[in-house]
Amino acid sequence: DRVPRRLDAAQRSALANLATLAVARLEARTASVPDAAGAADGVQELQEQLARERQFADAVIQSIPGAFFLFSREGEMLRWNARLEAATGYTGLEIAAMRPLDLVHPADRAAAEAAIREVVEQGREVSLEARMADKGGAGRPYLFTGRPLRVAGETYVMGFGRDISEWKRAEERTFRAKERLDLALTGSRLALWDWDLRANRVYFNEGWAAMLGGEKRESTIAWEEARRGIHPDDANLHEAAVANAVQGVSEAFECEYRVRHASGDWIWVHARGKVTQRDEGGRALRMTGTSTDVTKRKEAEERAEYLATRDALTGLPNRVLLHDRLEQGIVNAARHRTGFAFMFIDLDRFKTINDSLGHDVGDELLKRVAARLTACVRASDTVARLGGDEFAVILENLRGPDDDGAQQVADKMIAAMAAPMLVGSQHLTTSCSIGISLYPGDGRDSATLMKHADVAMYYAKEKGRNNYRFFSAEMNQRAQERLSIENYLRLALRRNELVLHYQPRVRMADGALTGMEALVRWTHPRRGLLAPGKFIEVAEDSGLIVPIGEWVLERACRQLRDWQRTLGRDFRLSVNLSVGQLADADRLYRAVEGAVRDAGIDPGCLELELTESLLMHNLGEKAALLHRLGELGVGISIDDFGTGYSSLSYLKTLPVDAIKIDSSFVRDIGLDANDEAIVSAIIAMAHSLRLGVIAEGVETAAQFAALKALGCDEYQGFHASPALPPGEFESRFAGKREPLPRP
User: Is residue 30 predicted with pLDDT exceeding 60?
Assistant: First the structure.
């Protein structure tokens, strides 16, 4: 037994018996023999009795665990057991000649002397840790207990000593382990705590005080006082985690919560603990654990979560958070039987601003747009950026389909976008197209609501942009038609349903045929021949425009090669380029180079047309591509000239060969002086730059005459001929360079 303690009941009983015997012996020594005549028999009987008592007393003394000794108040050693002799190495004769303090290490004798004095003078039982000195001079730690014994008015001292060497070594190991733990806790910034559930008090080490910004010291406080430092929002979570561990529901306690720092701020701690002691009934008596400051980690997690759910440019919710809030909105609306609106917003012609003025300006414009959209709604509503120039809004708590809240907000947004925005040194204006779907009428799940709002937004764009539209079943039907067109269009490429028609280009000066423009048509299996306006937009949106454009290039170049045999080697071909084709410059270059090479035509006979607005998107990238095509020998013309929003300086730096005047200027050229002035200026400017000029959409003799008078070089339009299938084109112009008169 390594644990020091007071004498137990058995030991006390043995000592009491011993004391009784000792008293009897001492009294026997002083008793006189009353009758000399019977002295011999009495002495004999007394001697036998005393011998038996002595044997019994010796047996009791020797049975006592640990060292035992009895001495007088004067310090005379009266009795001891063999364990004392074994512990000290002294013989019985040597111990008999010693004083009690001789058995104590010199360094501890003062304390031992004071303890003996307290027993003798105050009659109190005293315990003392001291080293017992052995014969060799070494000392071993013992726990001594002294108890007074009074006999016939005299005071004696009974002593009991238990070797606690092993216990002291264990105590030393525990102390060293605690030191190492404290060092480890200090290095790892762990705070140690120990909760005594019986006293309902909790101990904190220095690490806890340091973590909270206080003086580094240990402390023990009431459990409720410790709980008062927990953030109110985390108190229930902490209490539940503690209860689960105490009640045995969970094997351990683990919780992250906020506590008040000395600075007044809240810090996050991660606490782990375990019930280390329970009574026989399983009731928790003690819980011990550690806590760590995880504030930086929590802040990093919160920042990461924010970035994961927020748009980096505007700070608005992104698509992830929007979807989450949309799902919550559906649940809340269903529970409270209310409605809400989902709005899909797309900025009109934002790419023109972004590409012509730079991405920095575009980014600033998006920030201003985000702020204006947010200002149009309530704090409880959600404005999100989906990417690019697309935004979305959730308008909560609408009373029903007749609630005009969504319409009012849409009107405010249209008006807000119309006001100029100062970005840097420029005042910019933009507009937006808005599609609106309503819950529950237009959908009861997030995917349907978003899809229908998207459909309505595209419908708003088709109706002229800068407006909004509510979703309707008719729109959905049109959306289904678009999807059907896309699916059939994919099949059309494999089934060879696409065909080319060719519209002549005519020289105004003498009416000579100079070339042709290739225009794609689709022989739809159910709807017949479809013009580009019926499917090109779908092809652009679906990405099919790229393989379609490559097919057009290859087929048209082969047709040009065949017709040049009869129409001359200088007969030219023009082909339109699309946004999708220009997005991959390398692929487009390879397609053009391959089509020219495979057809075996002069690259100078091929002219590629792209619109002015398309050219200005990422002008730097387009310029590099155009220069590569120019080096190949291919001609470049600007289609729909005059309808863009850019500077004309690119005409001086890019390898442009011709410009095509948009039909919107040609339509009223003989009737509107402004249109005539614009066309005249365009022609004069182009000629000064040595560029050719082609007029599009010439349908009447008056238009033809006006353009010819202004010096226009070539024209296309019904006045010469509509676009014709290859067979009709060949039969009409076979071997001829002048168009036939119109009927």
Answer: no
